[in-house]
Amino acid sequence: MKLKETAIKALSLGTGVAIGLILIAKVCYEKSHDTCYANPEQIYRIRTLYTLNGEAHEYDNTSGAIAPGFRNHVPGVDVATRYTFLFNSDKFMDEDRNVIKGSIISADTCFFDVFDTEILVGDPKKVLADAGSAMVSESFAEKLGGIDKAIGKIIANEELPQFKIFVAGVFKDFPYNCSLRKDVLVSMESLNSTSTGNWIGNDRYRGFVRLADGTDPDMLAPAIRLMQEKNYPPEVIENARTSGNDIHYFLSPLTGAYTSLARVRNMMIILSVVAGLLILISLLNYILMSVSAIVKRSREMGIRKCYGAARENIYWLMCKEAAADMAAALAAAALIILALKPVTEDITGVPLDALLVRETYITAACVLTAVFLTAAVVPGHLYSRIPAGSAIRNSRENKRIWKLGLLFVQIGICSLLLTLMCVISAQYGKAVNDKPGYEYRNLLWTPLTGTDHSTHQGIIDDLKAIPGVLDVQMSYSLPLDYSSGNNIFQMKDGNKEELFNIADQYEGSAGLFEMLEIPFIEGRYPRTASEVAVSESFVNKMMEFQDWSDGAVGKQIQITEHSRNAEDAFTVSGVYKDYRINTLTNQDTRASIKFLGETGSTSLNFMAIKVSEVSTEMIARVEESIQARIENKEIEVKAYRDSMREAYSDERKMRNTVMAGCAVSIIIALFGLVGYVHDESQRRSKEMAVRKINGASVREIIGIYVTEITKLSIPALIIGNAGAYFASTLWLKNFSEKIALSPWYFILADIFIMMLVIACAVLNSLKISRSNPVESLKNE
After folding, report:
1. Under 8 Å CB-to-CB from 343, ≥6 apart: which residues?
2. Is 354 part of a structural domain of the chain?
3. What tens digit of pLDDT does each residue of 421-474 get?
4. Which of 28, 29, 24, 42 lies closest to 255, judged by CA?
5. Quick check: is 442 in a domain?
6. Within 10 Å of residue 342's Cβ, how many Cβ atoms?
7. Do 727 and 673 share a domain, yes or no?
8. CA gap 310, 321 in Å, rounded
9. How many angstroms separate the CA atoms of 161 and 449, rounded?
10. Nearest CA to 590 among 499, 507, 655, 529?
11. How far apart are CA 746 and CA 41, in angstroms?
């Protein structure tokens, strides 16, 4: 019997500790982001503060010359570096046409001076100074056949197969908790010097500096401003002074940048709460089982005291027992973690060993020490207070008070986690199923970057011949993607006046909006290259600067990048209803525009295919049809709805995490509830026997237990609801469009918990309610 009790205690404690430690490890992993470099506190990001008509916006991107400018003109900057993204595709081909996956950026020669890691082969200074040369990660080199075989190989990204990349060096992989974990670093000398050397515009670069010891970044603002004034064209500086539209650069610490993001910070708080509650409920259940044994062991403790056992002896005995139970629980936890390794890696998004950062070890050690001390001290305190002469007589009622308190907390925790799970699941469902302003249910898509654009019309004709394919259109990008920006400007008194920034959706073929079912409020889709369609919010924004009360169609607008000079304007052909750009967790709320693009144009790289029904067979037929005309690229067709789900993978992982925590907490709480009802049945067996003799029915006796547990549960559920409301509100802040926090989430969760509690109480009180009262009295 003792072995069975020990196994149950170890399993319940081990399960909660296992899941709790995984969540703690995830939080520590996130918190340690970008701390893997030497002296990470000296690394700062160069950020942009852009002011336009009184509205200030912060960006991570800069122009090409800014980072080198910091190195050359700002005292206190030891070294500066920059990088820029090159391709959306992560697929490369070697000379044998083998496909290798990896991420790529273009970096300058100072990259490893800021972001240090072990260099295995090559000299980064020389490699990154040579156009077309690249440093690759150790894992990427292994995919090329090993470090030795990788050196000298020629690879090319599928988006630009004619751009050959020469592998000239290998570096040790950056850790997973590093925002710059990239596989291919191609020399920035490969890019056009007008891009890498410009001071204004083309802000596609990310800049970083490593400051000298003792340098205060806040004191560098005058030097930074002086750098701009020395290198900006005079008219730009004058325009900034007269219009107030200006660009400022400032330094922001790299460490803490990731965890300062609202969605990351909220996720860490919720995971910490769930982890703490899981470990707490497991510990409470352990104490509950230990308290339940007081009646059985009170005589033992009385005898020990009669033979001279002092308070410290009782505590030492409890410490030894807690140590044995903790060892068994940790063994169970290790087995659970190993068994759940695939699930854990899916939820956390990284290999299990990547979670084992220094902070994880320290936090886990502190948590386990606290668990052990509590598991030893609380039972030790209760046992040491039992007088030797009344060991049996007084312990029953004291034990019951403790158990009621512990059950109260457990039920409250279950209510909190179940309600939170319901809210997270509902919000996730809204994110992946909500209508974003365009129709995508029967949409397939594939990128055709790097392919021969002259084949695109033939591909479209082939696809339209497939039964079930309703339409095929081309676009520069899809609404789920990140959108680049440009400014709307006007000429005033001979000067260029920038008005506001827009999300530039660039070109799309003539039937794109009709396929996506994006409605027009007025006008139509562009029919010529000199026309542009604008969103409804664009018109509202424009009304702040010009009188468009008579309608937007036919009005002339000028757009940076597109308008080659002050006289080059575009005619508004129509106003469409705003649709969601990107996701609910990262929605681009700027006004948007869309141009006409002709099939075969080099700017149209995404193909959208509308089908009567999305199926694996249809996807396979579409892939086969496209691949028949494409030779240098492996075609992958995706369902748009699947891409929508992938975009919310972090939210799905959070839902699954809370779901697992909720399930574990309920199971552990039920263990405690079963034990409580069983002990109460034994404690009150004489009382129930007397009631039955006096005519009480089975239903009435069961009702006594149900009433008592209900009185305990209701206030516990209310407190759990309060905690769930706080956690749910925090979670919903991550989304631009939220579900209504309906009382039904709380009510239904409470009803479910209450039904479990009542069912458990009924099933476990049936035995005593049906027992022979004479046997109960005889046993007493």
Report:
1. 660
2. yes
3. 899 899 988 888 888 999 999 999 999 988 888 999 999 999 999 999 999 999
4. 42
5. no
6. 9
7. yes
8. 17
9. 10
10. 499
11. 44
- What's the domain range around 602? 449-632
Q: Are 158 and 634 in contact (CB under 8 A)?
A: yes
Q: Does residue 487 register a pLDDT over 50?
A: yes
Give yes or no: residues 72 and 207 share one domain.
Answer: yes
Three-state secondary structure call for residue 610: strand
**CA separation for the pair 434, 350 (Å, rounded):** 29
CA distance 522 to 576: 7
Please answer whether residues 66 and 73 qualify as being in contact, where contact means their C-beta atoms are separated by less than 8 angstroms: no
Residues 6+ positions from 297 with CB-CB distance below 8 Å = 383
Q: From CA 157, how far away is CA 164, in angstroms rounded?
A: 8
Note whether 734 and 670 are within 8 A (CB): no
Distance CA 747, CA 209 (A): 53
Per the structure block, which two tokens stand in for 472? Answer: 């095929």
Token pair belonging to 576: 């469409």
Retrieve residue 366's tokens. Answer: 């502190």
Question: SS3 for 446?
Answer: strand
Q: Are 580 and 705 contained in the same domain?
A: no
The one-letter code for the residue type at 770 is: R
Asked if 29 and 350 touch (Cβ cutoff 8 Å), the reply is: yes
Q: Is residue 440 in some structural domain?
A: no
What is residue 613's predicted lDDT score, i.e. its pLDDT? Answer: 94
Tell me whether residue 4 is exposed, middle or buried, using C-beta atoms within 10 angstroms of its C-beta: 0 to 12, 13 to 18, 19 or more. exposed
Taking phi first (over 0 means left), then psi (-120 to 50 degrees means alpha), and beta for anything else, what does residue 7 get? alpha
235 shares a domain with 271:
no
How many beta carbons lie within 10 A of that of residue 135, not counting itself?
28
The residue whose two tokens read 């972001």 is 115
**pLDDT score, position 80:** 95
Same domain, 686 and 584: no
Radius of gyration of the chain (CA): 33
Q: How many independent structural domains does the chain possess?
A: 3
Q: What single DSSP character describes residue 123?
A: -
